[in-house]
Predict the 3D structure of the following.
Amino acid sequence: MKVQVTGAGGFIGRAVVDALRANGHDCDAPGLDGPRVDVTDRAALDRWFGDRAADVLVHLAWYSGNDRITSPENAAWLAHTARLLDAFVAAGGQRIVTVGTCLEYGLGESPLTEDLTPIRPHTAYGRAKADVAALGSRLSAATGVSAVHARVGYVYGPGEKEPRVVPALVHALARGERFPSTSGVQRRDYLFVDDVGRAIALLAEHDIEGAVNVGSGRAIAVADLIGAFAEDLGATDLLDLGALPQREGDPEIIELSIRRLTELGWSAEVDLREGVRRTLRSMRPRRPDETTAT
């Protein structure tokens, strides 16, 4: 199977490409293997897809600024996505995998379930990604292409960048700085990035349609995530849990139902302890007071 991947050089994109290639698929991954394709330019897209698109398109490219949750750029990227999907279908593409977020849901209840939990996003990012899911559904109904939309929970692992919590934490602790945070009692559905990549690759391979949650299916306290990294770094003394106030309206728990995903045969391979080790190995952090024997 030939797969074209947008955002292949990104945090999740690299893991998706690795998983697809490990499963023997031919991956066209601009930005990872060669020059990027400007997915905001229809002429560039037409050249990339050529006379015949790949069998499957996995669309991960999106605005990635630090203000992405609230930015008006989300609306612009929704428009870019509509043109991208149209170009893929016009070139003969057969299956579309779009990638969204758990923030598409109304977050007052858990577990978040594809066919039960209302779509009631409270952020510009969540609204735009919910509209991407609707775009895929409409395109599928109008043209007969197959479309699936991954609603991804909280992701951590190698390649993640600040100001997200894990790299911000690790870099601060490695510098010997104190790390202030909220109490961390709020629980979130975290999944290691390689397991996310495997899940999205599986969605590309199957004919399942509609929305599919991608997460661990088990929320943990943010304090437990932070604590696991600090413990491996020998820096639990630098944590200031409770130094920052809880954000107003922040839900106590965000946990995904992953029944649809597990019915495809998927299960997580990397637990929290191993995920912490792999992440730290990739970052090679060290506290300033550590010494190396010579």
